[in-house]
Amino acid sequence: WGGAGQKPMAEIPSGFGPLILVEVTFSFCRACKAFAKKYEELAERNLDVRFVSLLANHNRETVDWVKSQDINKAPYFLLYRRGTDITSPIATWTGSSVSSCEEAIEKARKGLAAAV
């Protein structure tokens, strides 16, 4: 999502499974740093979900995007269904809770299964 000199993506990348979980962090966020290992472990247990970390204060573009989304707490999570617009997450939440992540993923999976 926008490295140095790049603009944040307008669309979700293809590949991986039907769900994408984006964790928005800040370099100065202690809770984000403490949650990093748990986020990695969560990704290892959910191979059908694409896990992405976005360092919100990485560059001007990411700072602007975070402001445009009214993200003011971290870690902040956005869950997307593949093929949807980046401005339309199916769920958002804050806090460093593994159970909150697992519940959102499971609820989204059930929604995908019901749609088939």
What does this structure look like?
The protein has 116 residues and is an alpha+beta fold. The protein is built from three helices and four strands. The chain has a four-stranded mixed β-sheet with strand order 2-1-3-4, with helices on one face. Strand 1, helix 1 (30-45) and strand 2 form a beta-alpha-beta unit. The termini are far apart.
Helix amount:
25-40%
Kindly name the structural category. Answer: alpha+beta
Quaternary structure = single chain
Total beta-strand segments: 4
What is the C-alpha radius of gyration, as a whole number of Å?
14 Å
Molecular shape: globular
Roughly how many Å apart are the termini? 30 Å
**Helix/strand order:** EHEHEEH
How much of the polypeptide forms β-strand, as a percent range?
A: 15-25%
Q: Give the averaged pLDDT, no decimals.
A: 86
Unreliable stretches: 1-8
**Main sheet: strands, sense, barrel:** 4 strands, mixed
| Number of helical segments with 4 or more residues | 3
Task: Please list the strands of the largest sheet in the order they lie side by side.
Answer: 2-1-3-4
